[in-house]
Design goal:
mainly alpha, 19 helices, elongated
């Protein structure tokens, strides 16, 4: 930035020097040597002025005059942007050149050398900082938005095929039996809680009420008498349900559990073969995701999870950070010691980059063209002057010097012909 004015002053100084030499030699123009010096000076002035005009015409109109074919860069900067993009994209950064440069880089070795410089302490510091930032960035509003997006994603993803595959996998590994046993034990233990027993009792009342609304007047009258005289004992019903749940939980061969396992084992085939059943599953999924209960449950779970993570990260011996660092450090050590892993990573990275280049190579020219267009005419002029201004000013200096030498040579030839 500081050299361009100096070179411009040098070009102006050379032009003024030629002009001064012409003034000094003019009184002696009648002599052979005075005429020769004057010819050199005049030719230098002409050459300097011509090159000043040529250099200035690239960037602006000389003296502000509307001379045709001047201010070439501002007038044609859009065409220049297009041609620069085409040249770089199609002739410089060709697919073959980029692929060759990628092939020469050993990505796996570079990653291994970088991994050697990283210590476990470095991983702990970086992981703790990133985890703390992520926990702080995930505010309640952000968590709600994230949950909303997850619900939309799940709502748009067909769950029936995934459910069928999950049930097949669970049956293959015997997880269905363990899950049923766990649910039965949890249900039996829940009956020991007064709040749960009260909720079940209210549910029994609601079911009885709905049953009365559907039956005829006479059965409804009989059911009402039974309720009045205490034949319908809700506590006894709840106790019977609790005893049944305990029997199912304690007996792995209980008929209820076997029946449930048979139903579960038949579900995958039914899901895959019965479109109506699969559609009902999808509809139930949508209703469940849109229910207020699930929304509150997800919000509460997100709040609890965020608070738990924040409390853990506040501890210098954070289990979350330690868990992440253990796996990162294990991966780092494997990358350093396992040549096959490095080779596999190198092949994978090169394949991905080469695929991206093949797919998006046509955008390189457009990207560069848009970058040049974004400069605007003044920006393009400033950029070229900044990087090529020194050489352009030397063109003016050279024009003055070469013009003077050419003029002197021609005048000398003139003198020689006169002597002959």
């Amino acid at each position: 930035m500081m050299r361009r004015p100096r070179q411009r002053r040098l070009a102006i100084l050379a032009l003024w020097a030629a002009a001064a030499l012409a003034v000094v030699s003019f009184p002696f123009r009648a002599t052979w040597w005075g005429g020769w010096i004057l010819a050199i000076a005049e030719a230098g002035i002409v050459g300097g002025l011509a090159d000043w005009f040529a250099v200035t015409a690239l960037f602006r109109r000389p003296l502000g005059l509307p001379i045709p074919h001047t201010a070439l860069i501002p007038s044609n900067w859009e065409l220049m942007a297009e041609r620069v993009g085409t040249m770089v994209g199609d002739r410089v950064l060709t697919k073959e050149y980029v692929a060759g440069e990628i092939a020469r880089v050993d990505v796996g070795d570079l990653l291994a050398r970088a991994a050697e410089r990283v210590t476990r302490r470095d991983l702990e510091t970086v992981t703790a900082a990133i985890a703390a930032w992520a926990a702080d960035a995930l505010k309640p509003a952000g968590g709600g938005e994230l949950l909303t997006r997850m619900r939309r994603l799940v709502a748009g993803y067909p769950i029936a095929p995934a459910l069928a595959s999950a049930l097949d996998l669970a049956r293959e590994h015997g997880w269905d039996q363990r899950v049923l046993g766990t649910i039965a034990r949890a249900l039996a233990d829940a009956f020991e809680q007064p709040a749960f027993r009260g909720a079940v009792s209210e549910l029994v009342d609601e079911l009885l009420l709905r049953y009365r609304e559907r039956i005829g007047p006479y059965p409804r009258f009989v059911l009402g008498l039974a309720d009045v005289f205490g034949f319908i004992d809700r506590q006894r019903i709840v106790a019977a349900l609790a005893a049944g749940a305990r029997q199912v939980a304690d007996d792995s061969a209980h008929p209820v559990r076997e029946r449930l396992l048979e139903s579960i084992s038949a579900l995958p085939a039914r899901i895959r073969s019965d479109p109506d059943f699969a559609a009902r599953i999808e509809a139930a999924k949508v209703r469940l995701l849109d229910s207020a209960i699930v929304e509150r449950l997800l919000e509460d779970a997100a709040t609890e999870l965020r608070q738990a993570i924040a409390n853990d990260l506040a501890d210098p011996r954070s289990e979350v950070v330690a868990w992440i660092v253990d796996r990162l450090n294990r991966a780092r050590q494997s990358l350093i010691a396992d040549a096959n892993l490095r080779s596999a990573i190198d092949r994978w990275m090169k394949t991905q980059v080469t695929t991206l280049v093949e797919r998006h190579h046509a955008r390189i020219a457009t990207f560069i063209e848009n970058g040049v267009r974004a400069l605007g005419p003044e920006g393009a002029v400033g950029l070229i002057e900044e990087h090529a201004g020194d050489d352009l000013q030397f063109i003016r200096v050279n024009g003055t010097v070469v013009g003077g030498l050419a003029g002197g040579g021609l005048y000398g030839l003139h003198l020689l012909l006169r002597l002959l």
